[in-house]
What does this fold into?
Amino acid sequence: MKLHGATALVTGAGGGGHGRHFVEQLIERGAAKVYATARRPELVEIPGAEVLRLDISDSASVAAAAAHAGDVDLLVNNAAVSPGVNLVDGDPDTIRSTMDTNFYGTLAMARAFAPVLAGHGGGAILNVLSVMAWSSYDGANAYAASKAAQWGLTNALRLELAGQGTLVSTLMIGMAATPTMKAYAAATLGAGMLPEGLLSDPADNVRAALDGIEAGEIEILADTMAIEAKAALAGAPRSFDPFTGVA
Ligand SMILES: NC(=O)c1ccc[n+]([C@@H]2O[C@H](COP(=O)([O-])OP(=O)(O)OC[C@H]3O[C@@H](n4cnc5c(N)ncnc54)[C@H](OP(=O)(O)O)[C@@H]3O)[C@@H](O)[C@H]2O)c1
It folds into this structure.
C-alpha cells in the first residue's frame, strides 16, 4: 500500500522503542495522519502526530479508539509486554496478562479495526512479532508463547481479511537496541553481557517494515537474527539460540 497520504494508527508509541520510530517514519513518508497511541498519552510528544490514549488490553479503550480513529487505513500492532517469566514456575497471573496483552489485545485491535479498514478499501495490518514466535528462550517463555500465538493470529487474520482486501503482514525482529530490551538484558544477563553486535537498530527495523508494507510483503524479516531464525525452521524441531544463531 502507498503510505504517502495514508492514515495510520500505532499502538505502544509511548516507549522509546519501535512504536515511536513507526510514528516518526510514517510522518516522514508523508502519511496524512498518524495516531500515536499509548497507555499514558501525557508522556508522548511527537511533532506532527495525533496522540490518543489506548490500552489494548481494555476492551472499552479499544472500542473508543476505533470510534475516534475511523479514518485509519494502516494499523500497526506494536504494543506488547515482555516479562522475564517462564511457563512452569512463573507467576500464573503474569503469564495470563502477557497473553491478555500480546494475543488478546492484538486480536481485539484487529476485530475493532477490521470494519474501519474495510471502509477504506482494505488497507493493512502490521503485527510486530519476534523470533521468539518460532522458538523458546529459558527465562522468557511466557513472552515466547504469546508471540507464537500472535503468529497464528496473524496468519489467521490474513485468511479471514483477504476478502475485504486487507494486507496482513508481520515484522519479525530478533533483538533490537530499544530501552526495553537493554533493561531486560541488563536485569537478566547482567550489565554489559549482551554483545552490542547482536542488537539491531529499531529505526532500521521500522524502515524495513514500512518498505515491506509499501511492497505488499506479508512477512518482513527485520534483522540478521530474524533471517537466521527463519532458516532454522527448515531444520529439525529444536530451539533456536539467539546468542549463537545456531539451531
Ligand atoms: N526490542 C526488541 O529486541 C524486540 C525484539 C523482538 C520483538 N520486539 C517487539 O517490538 C515491539 C515493540 O517493543 P520495543 O522493544 O520497541 O519496546 P517498547 O518501546 O517497550 O514497546 C512496547 C510498548 O507497548 C506498550 N504497551 C504494553 N502494554 C500495553 C497495553 N496493554 N496497551 C497499550 N500499550 C501497551 C508499552 O507501553 P508503556 O510505555 O505504557 O509500558 C510500550 O510503549 C513489541 O511487540 C515487541 O514484542 C522487540
